[in-house]
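Q: DNA ligase (ATP), please. Structure only.
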Amino acid sequence: MELPLIPPMLATPGTLPPAAQDARWAYETKQDGQRVIVYLPGDARVLLRARSGQDITAAYPELAPLGTALGSTPAVLDGEVLALDERGRADFQLLQSRMGLAHSPGLAAQRAAKVPVHLVLFDVMHLEGSSLLRLPYARRRERLEGLGLDGPAWSTPAALVGHGEQALRATREHGLEGLVCKRLDSAYEPGVRSRAWIKIRNMRSEDVVVGGWLPGKGRLTGLPGAVLVGQRAAGRLRYVGGVGTGWSETERTELAALLRAATTDVCPFDPVPRVPGARWVVPRLVGEVRYSTRTREGMLRQPSWLRLRPDLTPEESSADLPDDMV
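A: Structure for DNA ligase (ATP):
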């Protein structure tokens, strides 16, 4: 049958609901993967569409058997494709080796053998010829869980009703990306970033040493567009990424003066990173940055600047790098 195209409902960044409203919300682990809408026509086929609407089915051949999981029952489902590390946690860097292969099925099959993916399902919007968009979240979850969709490469993890503080604490203790809070009475709003879904990203903060910068463009001409930062490990300053957000206009101007005063022709990072257009500085400025996770090579993901740390010397800044970077 012809299934309706349904763009995914999106969550709004925020904080936990008030304690008095806790029982009105469900809590799901925020996954670090690729969002997909799954179309099951009921004829043994499966169609996966990315958030952009692009057909990415061929990129994930191990999910093809999902097409027969519901027999002849047509459905449209919402979920996330994950690549899991050796500890069973979602690793976006691993997943990147699988993304973008929708037009290279041969290569996709090869990568699937080395880096298999897992599909986590968390909503159903259309089932047996009927739209479920207007049903409250709690009813949709009942319908979804009733489908029994747990297979070799897909699953339907349970959502926790209430106990939001405990759920958020658990994601932090287990090093997970965060939490998604969903109001039990909320309808599914296709393509809408809704306050009925709230996402909370667990962010970490660490001290870093500034070793360089990239000139800004446009309104930032003459100012740093990003600073290049590192952390000390085994007696060397290892590059861990560029930070381009987090400053006010005044703070960026003050930082520009500090960077110009520390200019050097010698790159302080070992090994020297490949950063076109980089300007190097003597590594004496220490700052604190916030970030979500690290890549397997130790690079900071989604870093933003918090503050300068004039109370710390570069030698006092801490590092928590993967063993292969030390």
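A: Brief note, in case it's useful. Helices lie at 92-96, 105-114, 137-146, 164-173, 249-261.
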